[in-house]
Amino acid sequence: MTAYDLFLAPFADFGFMRRALVACLCLGLGSGPIGVFLMLRRMSLMGDAMSHAVLPGAAIGYLLAGSLSLTAMGLGGLVAGLSVALLSGAVSRMTVLREDASFASFYLASLALGVLIVSLRGSNIDLLHVLFGTILAIDAPALYQIGAITSLTLVILAAIYRPLVAECFDPGFLRAVGGRGPVYHVLFLLLVVLNLVASFQALGTLMAVGLMMLPAAVAQLWSRSLPVMMLIATASAAAAGYLGLIASYHLELASGPTIIMTAALFYAFSILFAPSGIARRFFPRPHLKG
């Protein structure tokens, strides 16, 4: 087998592989930087909770459309995700519950409700598609939608980058200078939900957060500069998508889980060999002698 057959032939020969690759590249561009900000804000588990929160809306869109319509499911997931995010924030402000406990409660209820809704009318195969995604079934309208979400994410991130960074590292300073921290927080939650909806269409609700958090963790192990971390997260997410598709094609594996496992292998390698990894602790660099 030549290098062409191994790395390029699947995308040259099959349109569904090309569409899946473009979807992965778009998801890497949008989800990578969002994952870095989630990690800096210590909201990693909240991202996982919100990825399950989109399930009831996606299930309702599935029932209304009568098929696995990614557009209908995406719109339903967007409404459900934003509703859970706003309700969780309201509950944490009006009760003694902290925001993480509120998100966990809504996430469990949303996951159970979504599975029940799908099981009312769909088959086990439909439920598997909703939970684990169908990246190889991405069509042109779904690809346009993912591309639009990625473009919107990059534009909004560029517009709110400085106050978002200030809120991550020193929210007290942002309040002191009259910054509208809650506004930027809501905009950031909107971007999280939008990117989870885009990822959900390709990877399902159970793994939608995979290309968001694993590349962000890789980036944090390799760099301490925020712009560099965002670049590393984007590159590692795109590379995981490409190599995962190649591996799934040649080894006849499920594409979505293979992509996430590829990202997990990047993470494992980084844990061992990154500047902040384990190997550097056991084999430190020798100090220069004067």
Task: Describe it.
The protein has helices at residues 3-7, 9-13, 15-40, 44-53, 55-65, 70-94, 99-121, 124-132, 140-169, 171-176, 181-203, 210-222, 226-251, 255-273, 278-282. With 290 residues, it is mainly alpha-helical. The longest helix is centred in the middle third of the chain and has 30 residues, at 140-169.
Protein traits:
290 residues, globular
Quick recap:
By secondary structure, this protein is mainly α. It has 15 helices and no strands. Helix 4 crosses helix 6 and helix 12 packs parallel to helix 14.
List the SSEs and their pairings:
Elements: H1 3-7, H2 9-13, H3 15-40, H4 44-53, H5 55-65, H6 70-94, H7 99-121, H8 124-132, H9 140-169, H10 171-176, H11 181-203, H12 210-222, H13 226-251, H14 255-273, H15 278-282
Helix pairs in contact: 3-9, 3-11, 3-12, 3-13, 4-6, 4-7, 5-6, 5-7, 6-7, 6-11, 9-11, 12-13, 12-14, 13-14
Instruction: Kindly estimate the percentage of residues that lie in beta strands according to DSSP.
Output: under 5%
Along the chain, the helix and strand elements come as HHHHHHHHHHHHHHH
Structural class: mainly alpha
Distance between the termini: 54 Å
Mean pLDDT: 84
General form: globular
Task: List the total number of helices.
Answer: 15
* Share of helix, binned: over 70%
Q: Main β-sheet: number of strands, strand sense, barrel status? A: none
Q: Count the beta strands.
A: 0
The residue ranges in which pLDDT falls below 50 over 5 or more consecutive positions are none
Calculate Rg over CA atoms. Answer: 20 Å
